[in-house]
Amino acid sequence: MRSPRAVVAALVLLAVAGASGCNKIKSRQEIKKGNEFFKATQYQQALASYQEAQRLDPGEKRLEKFVGETYMALYQPGSKHQKDLDFANNAIKHLQTYLADYPNDKKVREFLVSMYLAQDRYDDAIGFYQELLKNNPNDVKAMTSVAAMYFKKGDFQKGLEWEQKRAALEPKNPEPYVMVGVQAWDRSYHYPDIPPDVRGKIIADGMDALQTALKLKPDNFDALTYMNLLYREKAKIETDDLKKQEDVAAADKYREQALELRKKSLATTPTPEPGK
């Protein structure tokens, strides 16, 4: 026969197990309510239900995703109000926690990066993608994203380096070279106060990349267009009038090539028939 103490212990365990099972059921009910509130765009009520579900079943890690996405929905993009900053930071915190247990959820990874960008947290976004690259060093999409983050934060040289890493993996793809050209123009055009030597180096790097893109694909419309634009940027910082004229003439040549390519493309595009 069991001792009275053993019987009491067994009864306590059964009670705890019963309460735990009951809480899990209640938690699922709260999740269902939260989902209904979320669909109805009643995000505060949805958040309250998800948080209650967490209280009832703290071991359910997927709730971190629901809570994080609800904070995202409450956040007003572009707002600097403290309330929205708190929503954004809470969204990031909960999405990070969720991804620690479910790192392969691509949709949530995209959500997290979008929140980093919304808060201008470029270094966090870069770190996130670099972490992915530790597991898959040849992840071209992650490399492209790292390059894009560096370009966004104004570090053209680092962005260039990452696009070059991507190009090394895709030697026949003109896209990374075109991207460098686009970003070189963007940096020069929108930030004319950059020191002339630095600006000149950026323009030269962009033109070198676009030349490579055109060797890979001579009829690349974007490469031709941005060669035109970069030559015009080069002319802006040229102090020799003769060389300035040469740059403008080269720009005109690339512009004409781009326009001619565009005309050919339109000429070969079938005209839709009425009713189709």
Which helices and strands appear, and what pairs or packs with what?
Elements: H1 4-39, H2 43-56, H3 63-74, H4 82-101, H5 106-118, H6 122-135, H7 140-152, H8 156-169, H9 175-190, H10 196-216, H11 221-237, H12 241-267
Helix pairs in contact: 1-2, 2-3, 3-4, 4-5, 5-6, 6-7, 7-8, 8-9, 9-10, 9-11, 10-11, 11-12
Report on the architecture of this protein.
- With 276 residues, this protein is an all-alpha fold.
- Among the domains are: 27-119, Serine Threonine Protein Phosphatase 5, Tetratricopeptide repeat, CATH 1.25.40.10; 172-266, no CATH class.
- Helix content is 79%, strand content 0%.
- The protein has twelve helices and no strands.
- The termini are far apart.
- Mean pLDDT is 91; it is low at 6-17.
The proportion of residues forming helix, as a percent range, comes to over 70%
What is the radius of gyration?
Answer: 28 Å
Instruction: Give the strand tally.
Output: 0
H and E order = HHHHHHHHHHHH
